[in-house]
Amino acid sequence: MDLTIDVTDADNQSTVWLSGEIDAYTAPQLKEALVPLTTSEGHQVIVDLEDVGYMDSTGLGIFISALKSAKEHNSSIRLKNLQDRVLRLFQITGLDDIFTIDTAIWGGNK
Amino acid sequence: MDTLKPDAANYQRLLKHYIAAQDEQSLYGAEQISKQFIQNNVPPEDIVNLHNQAMASLYSDMPAYFRHSMNFLLETMISYGVMLQEYHTLREEQSELKSEIAVAANMQDTLLKTTTPDMEGMDIGVISVPAHQMNGDYYHFVTGSDGLLGVAVADVIGKGIPAALCMSMIKYSMDSLPEKIMRPQTILENLNRVVERNVDDSMFITMFYAQFIPSGGTVRYSSAGHEPGFYFNAQQNTFEELEAKGLVLGVDPDTNYQQYERVLHQGDMLILLTDGVTECRQGDRFIESQEVLDVIGRFSHLPAQEMVDNVYKHFEWLQDFHLRDDFTLIVLKKV
Amino acid sequence: MGLLSCVTINNEWDIVKARQLGRECARDVGFSTVDQARIATAVSELARNIYLYTDSGQLCFEQISHTEQKGMTLVSLDDGPGMDDISQMMEDGYSTSGGLGTGLPGVKRLVDQFDIQSEKGKGTEIRAVKWTR
């Protein structure tokens, strides 16, 4: 469906604001915006998912790509404000132990 | 274009009639001729030309401006004619692609076929329906001579051909493992290493593996980030989520998997599924886990295969007969 | 019209000159009205490519009268940047200045024979032949 991506860059840090749904259609867009941000050494990438109501496994795959890239380039990535449904996906897949995830908000379906 | 000649005569006759009478019948005739033109691949500029010639033939006193206007229109139609040809080519290509995918889907069916075992003491029901031509869900049964039953359910992320190729890799890896003697956690650990070495950065696979030892009713299981299954307790008539946390396959080659154990008593069921079941939507609304269980509960008195068939039909209906994701549901009932 | 006549394409107005010359040549050969229009369109696309992507080039026309069947050759020559990937340029739906129905794949469909030689940095030569029916 639809996904809006806003990025604000500061010196050592980039914040990515996502809004909408992350699925097979919008995943390529996300990959294009997110992965390149992880290629600078020491850079911190923060992804705010407050307005993401739905994400499927293709979306997870993109975050995994980004995480692997961050490891390779010595940068970091953290996720924040995950909605219930999205957080659950990270929990089931065991990825919540691998990613740095800040405060989840409760609420679920928008 | 020889086929054009009889059409040209026809066209002129109908045109003449229509100019005189403006009748619906002539227009119906025009519709028929149009279909013939399309069938014979007549491009639009040829039709404009045909019209021009027909008019010149019918009216000797045709004003020059009309002829000029038609020539102008003819020029405008040339690009449309080219586009029409390109459309035909693209349609042919699409048809070829569809055939290729059908062949691949068939191969997949053959290669990955697994028979549901007929096991004493267990009633097994299975349903796996792809959302598109190729199935991204995988399931597999293995039986040992000592009565051991192994069952795997996996979900490859992504859809279509790449997911299916990934699945073939899983199948062949599993074939090479001495599954009958390995514990679920070891099987997952082995597979994890294979997957991590062989897939793209953003691909991963979730899998749930269970082993039944029918003599005592014990089941051991491990999960690699898979959608949690359920345990149905016959005596209490309750469902319980199967807690089994583990990392998806393909991300970290060194991860370890936890193994869990349970005892099944008569009437108890183990329900395994993929997220095509739990991610059903009704219109815009996601269905809740409890609803999934309610539906399963509704059919739980039936034999396992009937049960899964009915559950599927319900969710198919709920989603307007349009699956969003591959749907796999396996029920193992201790009888 | 001689055996070979050419138009140099420097500006957009030259495209119109090329169309005209092409159509006249086609008429002389004896092409039908519709085929004349097709040839003019093919000429236009070729000339437009020269105009848009190169500093200058030429469009030439040659009557084919020595064979049993009559026809015409269109030749487009330029010293432009040349093409990196010809097969990509020839893919339907791929066009830097349009969509379906335009570009080199379109020209190919308007004629009977089509040949293109192009090398990056060395310009492009396109030869197209159309036969009367």
**Helical percent range of chain C?**
25-40%
Tell me the total number of β-strands of chain C.
5
What does the overall shape of chain C look like? globular
* Element pattern of chain B in H and E: HHHHEEEHHEEEEEEHEEHHE
Mean pLDDT rating of chain C: 87
SS field, number of helical segments of chain B? 9
| Order of strands, widest sheet of chain B | 1-12-9-6-7
Question: What top-tier CATH class of the largest domain in chain B fits best?
Answer: Alpha Beta
Q: Give the neighbour order of strands across the main sheet of chain C.
A: 1-2-3-5-4
- Largest β-sheet summary of chain C: 5 strands, antiparallel
The count of domains of chain B is 2
Q: What gyration radius of chain B follows from the Cα positions, in whole Å?
A: 31 Å
Known CATH architecture of the largest domain in chain B? 4-Layer Sandwich
User: What class, by secondary structure content of chain C?
Assistant: alpha+beta
- Helices and strands of chain C, in order, run as EHHEEHHEE
Q: In percent terms, what proportion of residues of chain B is strand?
A: 15-25%
InterPro entries (chain B): Bact_Sigma-Reg, KaiA/RbsU_helical_domain_sf, PPM-type-like_dom_sf, PPM-type_phosphatase-like_dom, PSer_Pase_RsbU_N
Protein name (chain B): Phosphoserine phosphatase RsbU
Organism (chain B): Lentibacillus halophilus
Pfam family, one (chain B): RsbU_N
Overview of the molecule:
Chain A: Belongs to the anti-sigma-factor antagonist family. Chain A: This is Anti-sigma factor antagonist. The complex is a heterotrimer of chains A (110), B (335) and C (133). Chain A has 110 residues and is an alpha/beta fold. Helix content of chain A is 31%, strand content 33%. Chain A has helices at 27-34, 57-73, 84-92, and strands at residues 3-9, 13-22, 44-55, 76-80, 100-101. In chain A, helix 3 (84-92) links the parallel strand 4 (76-80) and strand 5. The model of chain A has no long low-confidence stretch (mean pLDDT 89). With 335 residues, chain B is of the alpha+beta class. Chain B has two domains: 2-91, Orthogonal Bundle (Methyltransferase, Methionine Synthase (B12-binding Domains), Chain A, domain 1), CATH 1.10.1240; 116-334, PPM-type phosphatase domain (Phosphatase 2c, domain 1), CATH 3.60.40. Helix content of chain B is 47%, strand content 20%. In chain B, the strands form three sheets. Chain B has a five-stranded antiparallel beta sheet. Chain B has a five-stranded antiparallel beta sheet with strand order 2-3-4-5-8. In chain B, strands 10-11 form a two-stranded antiparallel sheet. In chain B, helix 1 runs antiparallel to helix 2. The longest helix of chain B has 49 residues, at 64-112. The radius of gyration of chain B is 31 Å and the shape is elongated. By secondary structure, chain C is an alpha+beta fold. Chain C has a five-stranded antiparallel beta sheet, with helices on one face. Classes of the chains: A alpha/beta (110), B alpha+beta (335), C alpha+beta (133). Chains in contact: A-B, B-C. The interface between A and B is medium-sized, with 21 and 26 residues.
